[in-house]
């Protein structure tokens, strides 16, 4: 009798349990189509983005009037830009983007090319110390506050090419790649030891500026572009060391100095520590 009761209880308990679990299964079904939802979401998202571009003022709430000449800073960053996990793409944004957008927390990669950003302030990246790569190619940046990048200790790649910079701010020490091609940089705007402590720097692009001298180049650099500047001379301490004839630069394997007034063959002692000669004028 005891055994019979026990079996009955067990069977009832099993029935109840399986009902519960099938309930759970059926509840899971509507939510178990992440692909479909996601596709639907991104198509809607792209449609609304296109609509916004075609008809900028029409669907704006009354509180934030945005005209065709309006400023992008009134709109949430992830409506203007494409935000994917950790990355923000704000390329050629309409309406014009004239300042750095507010970034979602944890942003690691920011691509803000071909906009009309004019200035970078210290507060722009104060809350996004997670950044690893920033690309501002093709903006109108003429001013960067000195502290703007200095707290970005994870930053590895920084591109400021095709802007209007006359001077460079402090740069974070862990950069592996820095690109400021096509600006208006003069030697007095580039602190003598700006790159000195950047022991991980591999590529340094400063072509098409107005530099009068070669800045201090760290040993880690492999590719150095200084073409089309206004460099008139080099000396033995530019790349090598006058007090150390055993000093070598094994990493440096591409140096472009073409398009400068300097005639490199006048300074043969200046390149003895290098395994390649700079590309440039020799007569
Ligand atoms: C290049 O430097 C010389 C002085 O060394 C200066 O006279 C000239 O204006 C500079 N050119 C440019 C384009 O900055
Ligand atoms: C050479 O001079 C530099 C400073 O110009 C100094 O840091 C370095 O220690 C000197 N090296 C030797 C071998 O004297």
Automatic annotation (TrEMBL):
SUPFAM superfamilies: L domain-like. Belongs to the small leucine-rich proteoglycan (SLRP) family. SLRP class III subfamily. This is Mimecan. Residues 1-18 form the signal peptide. It holds the Pfam family LRR_8. It comes from Xyrichtys novacula. It is found in: Secreted, Extracellular space, Extracellular matrix. Keywords: Disulfide bond, Extracellular matrix, Glycoprotein, Growth factor, Leucine-rich repeat, Proteoglycan, Repeat, Secreted, Signal. InterPro entries: Leu-rich_rpt, Leu-rich_rpt_typical-subtyp, LRR_dom_sf, Mimecan/Epiphycan/Opticin. GO terms for molecular function: growth factor activity. One of its GO terms (biological process) is bone development. The keyword Thylakoid does not apply. Induces bone formation in conjunction with TGF-beta-1 or TGF-beta-2. One of its GO terms (cellular component) is extracellular matrix. PANTHER family: EPIPHYCAN-RELATED (PTHR46269), MIMECAN (PTHR46269:SF1).
């Amino acid at each position: 009798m005891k055994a019979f009761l026990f079996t009955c209880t067990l069977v009832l308990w099993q029935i109840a349990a399986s009902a519960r679990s099938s309930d759970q299964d059926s509840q899971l079904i509507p939510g178990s189509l992440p692909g479909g939802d996601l596709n639907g979401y991104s198509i809607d998202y792209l449609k609304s983005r296109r609509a916004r571009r075609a008809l900028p003022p029409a669907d704006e709430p009354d509180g934030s009037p945005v005209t065709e000449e309006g400023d992008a800073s009134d709109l949430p960053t992830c409506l203007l830009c494409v935000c994917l996990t950790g990355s923000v793409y704000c390329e050629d944004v309409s309406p014009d983007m004239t300042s750095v957008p507010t970034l979602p927390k944890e942003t690691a990669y920011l691509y803000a090319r071909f906009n009309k950003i004019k200035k970078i302030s210290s507060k722009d990246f104060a809350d996004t110390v997670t950044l690893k790569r920033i690309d501002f190619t093709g903006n109108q940046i003429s001013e960067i506050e000195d502290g703007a990048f200095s707290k970005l200790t994870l930053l590895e790649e920084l591109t400021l090419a095709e802007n209007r910079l006359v001077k460079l701010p402090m740069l974070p020490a862990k950069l592996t790649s820095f690109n400021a091609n096509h600006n208006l940089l003069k030697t007095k705007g580039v602190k003598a030891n700006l790159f000195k402590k950047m022991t991980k720097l591999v590529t340094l692009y400063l072509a098409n500026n107005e530099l009068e001298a070669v800045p201090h180049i760290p040993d880690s650099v492999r590719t150095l572009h200084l073409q089309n500047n206004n460099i008139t001379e080099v000396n033995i301490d530019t790349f090598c060391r006058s007090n150390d004839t055993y000093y070598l630069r094994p990493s440096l394997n591409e140096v472009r100095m073409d398009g400068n007034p300097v005639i490199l063959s006048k300074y043969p002692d200046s390149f003895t520590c290098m395994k390649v000669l700079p590309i440039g004028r020799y007569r």
